[in-house]
């Protein structure tokens, strides 16, 4: 293998390994944005906190940084949750720019506090793996980067499983889709926001731990990684699809008017004729001055949780319908009966 080919392959491998590190911090940023619809501009500072916590624990215990993953996760989660309670929660429901200003301010506060405690000196975490490498033929893989890449793969798989297979994960996805509807179904959205924010910041701290054998530790090291993480999630798709849910016919009229005037644009719209959806009405008794949506939502949630078939594609009757009548999904019969052509109808004011 000549030098040019070797240099290209070595650069590609190094790029892939570091891509895993950037992906890990981006996962945390994406969780916060996905659920709360806001960008955490202090994400890089939580990475730095993870690095400093690893540094201190390593000096106190003499352990390798990788053995400190559990304590770092716990400490980082507590710090993230306290940040949410003191800074973020009071801003829920307010203009998104307030959140941006608050998290930018939080970023400067963290930097100042870390500089006050640890000074601006460049510090290093001792690790026997720091200079270690793995040889694959003529290609050399730095062991700390391999560990960071494997950590990214494991944690991404765990998050994917958590979001799809656990009740809390499904609650996060429901809140992400529409917080108002999720709340009407009995989900404590404030609790979900707090958990999501703390989880996202914890991922940043975990990234910091895996970076300590690779980078020196100083108060502003997170700025670079924060910028890269922003680029990663934008390239990965930051809010490309717009959706809306109109609760009640009065809000439906307001939405239609805004669409006609070009004030808003959505790729899909869901209309709930009953304010609050099925949990708020849906043919159930409604009494003036009495709001039962939360209690009904909790009941519906428990019914759904215990149901043997939770999705339409799991329902044996749906299987029978397709088998005996519509033959298969996207068949001519199913397409004719179940799909509508949105180009075939017009808004009320259109001629």
Task: Please give a quick description of this structure.
This protein is mainly alpha-helical and 351 residues long. Helix content is 62%, strand content 5%. Strands 1-2 form a two-stranded antiparallel ribbon. It has a two-stranded parallel ribbon with strand order 3-4.
Overall average residue pLDDT: 78
Q: What portion of residues belong to β-strands?
A: 5-15%
How far apart, in Å, are the first and last alpha carbons? 70 Å
Structural class: mainly alpha
* Broad shape: globular
* Poorly predicted regions: 238-247
Helical proportion?
Answer: 55-70%
Helical segment tally?
13
Question: Whole-number radius of gyration?
Answer: 25 Å
Strand order in the sheet with the most strands:
1-2
Order of helices and strands: HHHHEEHHHHHEHEHHH
Largest sheet: 2 strands, antiparallel
Number of strands: 4
What does this structure look like?
This protein is mainly α. The protein contains 13 helices and four strands. Strands 1-2 form a two-stranded antiparallel ribbon. It has a two-stranded parallel ribbon with strand order 3-4. A hairpin with a 2-residue loop joins strand 1 (133-136) and strand 2. Helix 2 packs antiparallel against helix 3, helix 3 (69-88) packs across helix 8 (189-211) and helix 6 packs across helix 8. It is globular and about 65 Å long.
